[in-house]
Amino acid sequence: MRRIQSFTRSATFALLAAATLTVLALGWVVARDLRRSADAAGQLYERFGEGLDIIDDILFETGEVRRILLYALHTTDANRQLDYVDQSRSAEGRVRQLLDSRSPILSTARTRAARESVAAAWTDYLQTRDEVVGLILEGSLTEAVSLDERIGAARFNRVRSAIADLKASFEADAAVQVEAEHARASRATGRLGLIVLSALLLVAVGVVLVNRRASLEVGLRVKTEFLTTMSHELRTPLTGVIGITDLLQAGAIPPAQRDLVRMLRTNATTLLALVNNVLDYSRIDAGLMRLSPRRFPIHAPVEEALDSVSEAAARKGLALGYVIEGPVPDLMADEDRVRQVLLNLLSNAVKYTERGEIAIRVRATMEAHGTAAVAIAVRDTGIGIREDLQPRLFQWFSQVGPAATPQAGGTGLGLAISDRLSRLLGGSITVESRVGTGSTFTFVFRGTAAAPGEGPDPAQLDGARVSVMVDPGIVGDQLFSLLRGWKVEVVACDAASGPAGDVDAIVVDAEASAGALRAALLRNRPAWKVGHVPVLTIASLRSSGGLAIAPHESILTTPVRLQALHDALRSAIAPAVPAGDGAAAPQRCLAPLSVLVVEDNEPNRRVIRLMLTELGLNSDEAAGGHDAIDAAARRAYDVILMDLQMPDLDGLEATRRIRARESVHRARIVALTANVLESDETRCRAAGMNGYLQKPLTLDALSAALRSVPFMS
Amino acid sequence: MAAARPALIALLLSAALLAGVETRAQNVAGPAFVVIVNRSNPVDNLTFSELRRIFMLDTQTWPHGRKITVVLREKGQPDRTDAIRIICGLSERDYERHILFRTFQGSVNIGPRSIQSAAAMVRFVFSAPGAIGYVKTDELDSSVKTLRIDGLLPDDAGYPLRRALRGRAEGDW
User: Fold this and answer.
1) Crossing angle, helix A2-71 and helix A109-137, to 10 degrees?
2) Which of B64, B124, B143 to mutate to test the interface with A (most CBs of A within 10 A)?
3) Cα A223 from Cα B145, distance rounded (Å)
4) What would the pLDDT profile of B29-72 be if each residue is shown by its tens digit?
5) Which of A187, A397, A632, B159 has its CA 20 to 30 A from that of A713?
6) pTM score, whole prediction
7) Which residue of B has its CA nearest to A138?
8) A674-694 pLDDT per residue, tens
9) Following CA atoms B60, B63, B64, B68 in sequence, which dihedral angle do they give, to the nearest 10 degrees?
10) A376: closest CA among A424, A446, A435?
11) Does A583 or A139 have the greater pLDDT score?
């Protein structure tokens, strides 16, 4: 949509610019034509007037030639006669000059012919005139008069007639030119009309495009609001479903039902992921996606993403694991987005892999200014992707090749979202794939390298001797990598003869060699004299339920977590040492805290109350904003869990009013929201809230939020 | 013999002096009269006596039949007096008596035309096909034809209308 919007904006500007340029260009052409036409008309009228003047002058001077000459007949004084002759000749000279004029008025074919007629008539007359002059000067006045009357007058009239013809020709010629000029002006006017119409058309197109663009923007905004609202509505019931499954998992339920609950939670999580994908798409499309960097160790999002797909992988018998190759610092980046991309890549890998393994390998490269570029390669042994289809992988709503099957499912948004997220994170996603062999998606992102936070203490396992019984593959690679990182001595172990020497623990992959390795170990423990050595069995969650636990054997589910393996080994080697604060251990040390749950949705309210009970806390409930204000006025709560969207009074306004009434005591108000737009956090803080919890609410997140209350013990 | 030698030298010197005087006399001679006619006139040459008969109106028609119109400068002008004296050998008064006499005789319809300036003389001759007039050489232009007199042009030695001017200073006639 942003592309369309951008394209429409660009097209609008381009068209309007083109319209402007076109109008300017055409306007210039028309202005030039009109100016030329006006100039031509002006020149025409000027020439016309000048021509008429010239013709009139010719006519006048012609008359002068004979008129003055005739004066000479009225005197016998030779000098006066000569003067008259000279004046007549001067007039004749002026006529000749006018006729020889290079004025354009006499240059057209029509006037040129007329002028030649005038010249010819003049020549005839002047011949007579000269004879008359001669007779006058020679004193033969009678003969001169006779000659003039007999021949001169007639020839002179022919001259005048020719001049009249010249004038008529010129006028006719001028009329033709005027007509032509009128036609030219008409054409220019026509073009002007065309230009005006074109300009109007272009303006209309521009207006339509602007309206279209406005419509698109309105449509985009409406769509974004719709998707946001819908995702909120979808996430609200999902909150209840996931919360209930968390409560079920936290409780004592039969192992047979535990898988069902886990599947329930997985499906709910998948549905939630789908909703999140749609929401992410709308946010990316609307340009509203913002990052929230925080410090995290790289194994955290990797393990969480692996954990999320472990159930699906276990169903297919796929091995899962990761190896961190070389030092990778803790990072300041948006961990949630990193995990989201990884989860998407892993989900695809699981979806399109039927056997083998899915391995993650992490490398980091330090760059300038303390930035680390982290490359996470997700390799599967699946069906692969044809090379010609690979460029379409990252397009919106694109599913390629065998992926585009009903069984594959999906919206075609995952990889596109991941690709956009990777770019937001300063990196990229590339793919290498061969059909039938598998695919490797390499996700690169950048973050600021940070000092390492708390993690397993390598010294606690330093010098321990551990034997590892695994098949070649990612699980073994991960185990060897972690153990060597903790300076644990890995002792070789042969399936036939057992560990080569004393060991502190044996780690065996329950799935290795189709379970044969573990079976051999358990069978031969006495023979191998390792009956007392703790055995740590790595098994998938699905298969672990069917295992018969042997003495001194403990189960560690895959994918192997760094902290869990460390704790398990430490427990096995030195059971006296208490295990660390495993996340699985419920936090039941939060009492006494007074908590008010403000939530208009009754099932959600019930789930939160149950979670709080699980954490050892009692709570009061309010079904709306007004109830919350009243409750807060009656009792000084330590924590208020405030839903943001409520029909009577929303959480933000309720918070403002509660804050307005507070004097000394200030409750810690934590927002509960399924609206996960980044702007929400800002609005919450502005209203006086201390933090927010994102729906669907999990037990761990609720526990962490409550533990962060400063006055808690 | 010795006594004759100085006389011979004196004779030669006298001759030389005379020759020098002759040379100076030619150098100070004024411009000659040039006889002009209309360019359409086929006549190129006149004998001096033919010229005189024309100006005396004894001859009034050109060989090609065109009536001859004699043009003179106006009365009292030196160019008129001199021209009459040189060409006709008469004073102006005698010339006018002669013309008047011929007019009374009825043998002349129109007497010589009088023109006030040399330039007007030229223009007149230019416009009148049968006219004959005269100007000084420096007043001549190409609009009219110059006639040879006795086959001579003004620059030629022996030109008859110059002889009468010998000994005069330029502009002194």
Assistant:
1) 20
2) B124
3) 112
4) 556 889 999 999 999 999 999 999 999 999 999 999 999 999 99
5) A632
6) 0.45
7) B69
8) 665 556 677 888 888 888 887
9) -20
10) A446
11) A139
| pLDDT value for B24 | 35
DSSP one-letter code for A548: -
CB-based contacts of B83, cutoff 8 Å, min separation 6: B33, B55, B72, B73, B134
Q: A20-29, A540-549, A583-592, B71-80 — which is least confidently predicted?
A: A583-592
Spatial neighbors of A709 by CB under 8 A, at least 6 apart, are A593, A638, A639, A668
Q: How would you classify residue A426: left for phi > 0, otherwise alpha for psi between -120 and 50, otherwise beta?
A: left
Given A82, A89, A140, which is nearest B115 (Cβ)?
A: A82
Q: How many CB atoms lie within 10 A of CB B26?
A: 12
Which residues in chain B touch residue A132, judged by CB atoms under 8 angstroms apart? none
For B31-149, the fitting CATH number among 3.40.190.10, 3.90.1150.10, 3.20.20.30, 1.20.1250.20 is 3.40.190.10
**DSSP code at position A549:** P
Query: Over the stretch A50-81, which tens digit does the pLDDT of each residue have?
Result: 778 888 888 888 888 888 888 888 888 899 99
The interface predicted TM-score (ipTM) is 0.75
The DSSP secondary structure of A582-611, one letter per residue, reads: -TTS------S--EEEE-S-HHHHHHHHHH
What whole-number distance in Å separates Cα of residue A139 and Cα of residue A75? 10
Domain residue spans in chain B? 1-30, 31-149
How far is the C-alpha of A558 from the C-alpha of A311, rounded, in Å?
Answer: 10
* Angstroms from A137 CA to nearest CA on chain B: 6
